[in-house]
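Margin note: ligand = coenzyme A.
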Amino acid sequence: MKTAGAHRVRAAAPDDWSAIARTHQQCWMEAYRGHLPDRVIDGRKGPEFETLWEQRVLSSNEGPVCVAEDPEGTIAGFASGGPLRADLPGYDGELVTFYVVADSQGRGLGTEMFAFIFAGMKSARYRYLVAQVLASTPAGGFYRRLGGHVVEQRHFDYRGVGVSANYFVVR
Ligand SMILES: CC(C)(COP(=O)(O)OP(=O)(O)OC[C@H]1O[C@@H](n2cnc3c(N)ncnc32)[C@H](O)[C@@H]1OP(=O)(O)O)[C@@H](O)C(=O)NCCC(=O)NCCS
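Resulting structure:
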């Protein structure tokens, strides 16, 4: 168990799925509003996040999942790792989700959760941890701060919108 101020970072439990889904929807809106059209932001509804997380927390063999919770048990962040989804030859693992609610950012929770997922992925024998970052957002600053660097830039269609992504790698 790790602490970041009053919060603690721990492995997600099966009954966390509903709270993670709610937090994911909140973070999705906070992080990408203004970077993606409103119709894309608002097009992802609660049930989509619920389906995603109900399945994911029951699939512990897919890779590590952790949450950061405050002393009252409210989830302020979450992260997950798993096999790399993009076709990037030579690379294997991915930081699939990684979010801290806006009010709790800048307190070290991201650093603690990244360390949790990184350790879990190394235990599962992944050699690399790749993070896909929407290029217009500032999140790349987090990975650069950890010594990560961009190994690929790609443009693709996301729900009908042309987007640019940077792929950061932290070894
Ligand atoms: C990226 C994110 C998870 C980082 O969480 P956090 O709890 O704020 O991170 P930390 O407090 O541990 O910050 C660690 C360091 O990274 C830097 N950092 C964090 N987020 C940053 C950002 N968006 N831009 C630039 N630097 C950032 C911090 O300044 C800090 O550096 P310091 O120690 O020199 O002050 C959080 O900003 C977030 O949820 N962003 C929105 C969602 C998102 O973009 N997720 C990543 C998808 S790939």
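Helices lie at 17-32, 38-43, 46-58, 109-123, 140-145.
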